[in-house]
TrEMBL record, chain A:
<feature type="domain" description="Aldehyde oxidase/xanthine dehydrogenase second molybdopterin binding">
    <location>
        <begin position="5"/>
        <end position="270"/>
    </location>
</feature>
<dbReference type="Pfam" id="PF20256">
    <property type="entry name" value="MoCoBD_2"/>
</dbReference>
<dbReference type="InterPro" id="IPR037165">
    <property type="entry name" value="AldOxase/xan_DH_Mopterin-bd_sf"/>
</dbReference>
<dbReference type="GO" id="GO:0016491">
    <property type="term" value="F:oxidoreductase activity"/>
</dbReference>
<dbReference type="InterPro" id="IPR046867">
    <property type="entry name" value="AldOxase/xan_DH_MoCoBD2"/>
</dbReference>
<dbReference type="InterPro" id="IPR052516">
    <property type="entry name" value="N-heterocyclic_Hydroxylase"/>
</dbReference>
<protein>
    <submittedName>
        <fullName>Molybdopterin-binding domain of aldehyde dehydrogenase</fullName>
    </submittedName>
</protein>
Automatic annotation (TrEMBL), chain B:
<dbReference type="InterPro" id="IPR036010">
    <property type="entry name" value="2Fe-2S_ferredoxin-like_sf"/>
</dbReference>
<keyword id="KW-0560">Oxidoreductase</keyword>
<dbReference type="InterPro" id="IPR006058">
    <property type="entry name" value="2Fe2S_fd_BS"/>
</dbReference>
<dbReference type="InterPro" id="IPR002888">
    <property type="entry name" value="2Fe-2S-bd"/>
</dbReference>
<dbReference type="InterPro" id="IPR012675">
    <property type="entry name" value="Beta-grasp_dom_sf"/>
</dbReference>
<dbReference type="GO" id="GO:0046872">
    <property type="term" value="F:metal ion binding"/>
</dbReference>
<dbReference type="InterPro" id="IPR036884">
    <property type="entry name" value="2Fe-2S-bd_dom_sf"/>
</dbReference>
<keyword id="KW-0408">Iron</keyword>
<dbReference type="InterPro" id="IPR001041">
    <property type="entry name" value="2Fe-2S_ferredoxin-type"/>
</dbReference>
Length: 339, 168
């Protein structure tokens, strides 16, 4: 038995959003009487952190603290339209819509504050802690809770805004094929170090080194976790997951439910290092690109290349099971050409 | 089999509820006692998101018939914090960002509590073994393992300090 070591590389570029019939998302924002800002969305946060990121976008644009922002994604029947959480589009599309809505709301907020302070709205700024103040004369200030009360009970205004982000459908130029199907593309490279046991065929992923260029990382902690959690899913695709391990010869031995569906546990994770490069995209919210689905992509070919580097077996069908590695090794010994 | 009254101590408080023969501990905790920390993931004992401590031992509460635990002590994630102050494991999960969607987190934390109660100085392998029944689909596990090791370290440091104070 020999443990063979190999290293493989793979790169990916990944589009943000899609190009079906146009790709819109809308957002509404309004201030409550207490001075909180409610963002209404139909976009879904299924755990990836969309609510956090759009709250950041709104807080930054309004000049208000994060604690003032309430994100409501309650109901797709009654909320502003969103195409959904897919195509790595959430941060880009919804973030842009929220920024647009927050800008409009900010203008009303400053106008209400200006009327209360009896100054020109153009001379006002936010301090980020909840106050609107006069530039150069910070003692003249008013808190958002007082601005909201004045808007509702004295001035009869709604501190609110609408955000309508639309990536229009792009048709290819027939002569050249040229088109603009996505808003921007994120890029990544993964380096995989693996160990292949030439007796059992078992592949162990030892280390993954990830580098991601994702525009601006609006929330670096969540972005890093998306990279590493996604890489874990890539490892899972690469060497574990299959509903039909013996297809098409036999369908009798596959898992019947998720409790039998093979995925790596905490003891089977590689060591990971991750680097995020920030090259802001001109059309992204504060420069962000999508970083959803791509994180599971690069690890798979990197692992395949590392297996090839380790033992000369070129695998093209996932998962890279012990059986497929051993069959590949047998073929090499028999002098068959490498596929 | 008729309804039974089940008496248990949950997070140190005496509780009683009615259990049908097919009432699981998880169902009783969530729907009769209003404790929503333990999550119903797979409902067949495979994912660990419903993990609670039963007389100190970690169990998947979705597979425990409530009627069989009369007189037992149950600990859930709700019982760990002291008011607004998180306990060591919870705080280490926050500090190490060992959560993304959060669905597995209560079960992970209770498995970690069970481990640290019997082994205050675990290795990474021992942590992996302790949470091997808990599935996470977001983080890739590494931050969770680090957080549990960090919680163990903080708890040992505190115990060491307390011992020094006592002998002074």
């Amino acid at each position: 038995m020999t443990l063979l070591y190999g290293r493989g590389y793979a790169s990916v570029n990944y589009p943000t959003g899609m190009n079906l019939g146009g790709d819109p998302s809308q957002a509404l924002i309004h201030a409550t009487t207490m001075g909180g800002f409610v963002i209404s969305l139909s976009s879904v946060d299924l755990g990836q952190g969309l609510k956090t990121v759009v709250a950041q976008c709104a807080a930054e644009t309004l000049g208000m603290p994060m604690e003032q922002i309430i994100v409501d994604t309650a109901d797709t029947d009654t909320g502003p339209h969103c195409m959904g959480t897919f195509a790595s589009r959430g941060t880009h599309r919804v973030g842009n819509a929220v920024i647009m809505a927050a800008r409009e709301a900010r203008e009303v907020m400053l106008q209400v504050a200006a009327d209360e302070l009896e100054v020109d709205a153009g001379d006002l700024e936010t301090d980020g802690s909840g106050y609107v103040r006069l530039k150069g004369s910070p003692a003249k200030q008013i808190h958002i809770s007082d601005i909201a009360l004045a808007a509702h009970f004295k001035q009869g205004k709604s501190i609110s805004g609408r955000g309508m982000f639309l990536k229009e459908r792009s048709y290819p130029v027939p002569e050249t094929g040229e088109m603009d199907p996505d808003s921007c593309q994120a890029h990544a490279c993964t380096v995989a170090d693996v160990e292949v046991d030439d007796e059992t065929g078992v592949v162990t992923v030892l280390r993954l080194h990830n580098t991601y260029e994702i525009g601006r990382a609006l929330n670096p902690a969540m972005a890093t976790q998306q990279v590493e959690g996604g890489a874990w899913m890539g490892v899972s695709h690469a060497i574990f997951e299959s509903t039909e391990p013996y297809y098409p010869a036999s369908r009798a031995h596959g898992p019947v439910d998720f409790s039998e569906y093979l995925m790596p546990g905490s003891g089977e994770i590689p060591e990971q290092t991750s680097v995020i490069l920030e090259r802001p995209a001109s059309n992204g919210p504060f420069g962000a690109k999508g970083i959803g689905e791509m994180t599971a992509n690069a690890p798979i070919p990197a692992i395949a290349n590392a297996i090839f580097d380790a033992c000369g077996v070129r695998l093209t069908t996932m998962p890279f099971t012990p059986e497929s590695v051993l069959r590949g090794l047998d073929a090499l010994r028999d002098g068959e050409p490498v596929a | 089999m008729p309804l039974r009254i089940v008496n248990v101590k949950v997070n140190g408080v005496d509780q009683a509820f009615m259990a049908k023969p097919d009432t699981t501990l998880l169902l009783a905790l969530r729907e009769q006692l209003g404790l929503m920390g333990a999550k119903r993931g797979c409902a067949q004992g495979a994912c660990g998101s419903c993990t609670v401590l039963l007389d100190g031992a970690p169990v998947v509460s979705c597979l425990v018939p409530a009627a069989t635990i009369d007189g037992a002590a149950v600990a859930t994630v709700e019982g760990l914090a002291d008011g607004q102050e998180l306990n060591d494991v919870q705080q280490a999960f926050v500090d190490g960002f060992a959560t993304q969607c959060g669905f597995c987190t209560p079960g992970m934390i209770m498995s970690a509590e069970a481990l640290l109660a019997r082994n205050p100085d675990p290795t990474a392998d021992e942590v992996n073994e302790a949470i091997s029944g808990n599935v996470c689909r977001c983080t890739g596990y590494a931050p969770i393992v680090s957080a549990i090791l960090e919680a163990a370290r903080r708890r040992r440091d505190r115990a060491g300090t307390a011992e020094q104070e006592a002998t002074r």
